[in-house]
Amino acid sequence: MAQHQAFLTAATSDNTRRTYRSAIQHYLTWGGVLPGDEPMTIRYLLAFANTLNPRTLALRLTALSQWHVHQGFADPTASSTVRKTLIGIERVHGKPKKKAKALPVEDLERIVDNLLNLNTLLAKRDNALLQLGYFGGYRRSEIVALHVEHVAWETEGIVITLPRSKTDQRGEGITKAIPYGEEVCCPVTALRTWLEAAKIDSGSLFRTVTKWNEVGSVALHPSSINTILSSCAKKAGLGYMPELSSHSLRRGMATSAYRAGADFKDIKRQGGWRHDGTVQGYIEEAGQFEENAAGMLLRRK
Fold it and tell me: What is the pTM (predicted TM-score) of this model?
């Protein structure tokens, strides 16, 4: 039974489990009871229709649905009335999804150039972290999960095999090759410089660094990637720093690679995206002015 429970737990990612627990707690704090019914579910939606993003409410319904299904109760969120109520809330209160601004490779070079001039242990770590995250197309959870043992040093660059990620929950492994750079940016050199300076030969690649230049033994928290990027962007003089997040690295890689002439399949593989639609969205963003019907009219001769 313990083994079976362990496998059932492993079927859902830790992040999803935490999100669902938070949603259920929100529902209970409001005054909901478990198991619930259709009238109570509708009252819950109405209570927060004016204050919560409809996407948040939809996620809360998913959590409630999962709880009832796994506990063997009838799902109160599955009724047509509940679903139509949510659709109505979305139409009345729906807002565009806020997107992180893509970081152009030219602005990454400004950040890297500033970090190279600082020449501190912290700057070496941030330089390696941001470059690896950018050119590897990694999510923030993947960046902090990288270990020395995942990196193979080759003549042309490095090959990184991440045992598990958001899109690889079954542990099949995702392998990415990152070549040497010829301009300001070179993620391979940046990583080697950081590892040698920090004297790291095993375990997590990216760790805390104290003001006394002491390197920690555990990996950075995923949320720290946002702080590191914002801090480095501010020091480099990027005026749109508040619009950046860790996702700006992945978006920036995709849009800049497309502008540089990279193929769709190569961009998709480097970012580890499962769906073509996601990559297509980044490509359309990259060419929104160059591949533009209005632009063809405005630039005609």
Answer: 0.80
